[in-house]
């Protein structure tokens, strides 16, 4: 009996692994189909999100010769370190190959860095859509439904992108690509981006 249980578990794991690999391949195929020199917008909530959650995606898109823009909806001022974190974000983007001219940081009271505050979906969507249209974006990358780490600000971005997509408000040539979360900060960014534990309580980070 126990052999049957083990066999069933192995088969189930194999099925899940194959399905997950297939889904990831589909996502990257979407990126390839857009072609070189595509304009991609990475939408994040706080400085350091780009490294902790999206570095593999950004580097992969760079290999596909996408021009990557970044829109950050807050300065990450939860611990009153907003100015420092904005500088860190620009340094991080430089390492990832995103020039300062392609980085926009929103720093106002409408979008506070606070896991206890739910950002207004319509307001986020409006700001996001304007940025997409102004920059001619044809690929949007952001968090998944769970915000990867469960942070409410992350989830708000997913909700806004989903609303725009579901309501048909995105330009016809625009696509949405699920992210590829990175459980570890890439070594080149360790000295730039300290891990903020309050934002990552559900993410299994290693020291």
From TrEMBL:
Membrane spanning stretches: none
Single GO biological process annotation from the record: GPI anchor biosynthetic process
InterPro entries attached to this UniProt entry: GlcNAc_PI_deacetylase-related (IPR003737), LmbE-like_dom_sf (IPR024078)
One Pfam family matching this protein: PIG-L
GO cellular component labels: endoplasmic reticulum; membrane
Recorded GO MF terms: N-acetylglucosaminylphosphatidylinositol deacetylase activity
EC number in record: 3.5.1.89
Family, similarity comment: Belongs to the PIGL family.
Name assigned to this protein: N-acetylglucosaminylphosphatidylinositol deacetylase
Organism, scientific name: Cebus imitator
Lineage: Eukaryota, Metazoa, Chordata, Craniata, Vertebrata
């Amino acid at each position: 009996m126990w052999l049957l249980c083990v066999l069933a578990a192995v088969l189930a794991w194999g099925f899940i692994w194959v399905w997950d690999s297939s889904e990831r391949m589909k996502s990257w195929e979407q990126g390839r189909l857009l072609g070189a020199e595509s304009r991609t917008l990475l939408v994040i909530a706080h400085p350091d999100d780009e490294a902790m959650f999206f570095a593999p995606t950004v580097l992969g898109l760079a290999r596909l010769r996408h021009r990557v823009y970044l829109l950050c909806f807050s300065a990450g001022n939860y611990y009153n370190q907003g100015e420092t974190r904005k500088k860190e974000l620009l340094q991080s983007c430089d390492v990832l190959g995103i020039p300062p001219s392609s980085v926009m940081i929103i720093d106002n009271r409408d979008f506070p860095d606070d896991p206890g505050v739910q950002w207004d979906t319509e307001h986020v969507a409006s700001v996001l859509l304007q940025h997409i249209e102004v920059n001619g974006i044809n690929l949007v990358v952001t968090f998944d439904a769970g915000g990867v780490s469960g942070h409410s600000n992350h989830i708000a971005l997913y909700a806004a992108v989903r609303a725009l997509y579901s309501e048909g408000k995105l330009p016809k040539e625009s696509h949405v690509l699920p992210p590829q979360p990175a459980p570890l900060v890439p070594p080149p960014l360790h000295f730039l981006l300290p891990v903020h534990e309050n934002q990552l309580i559900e993410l299994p980070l290693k020291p």
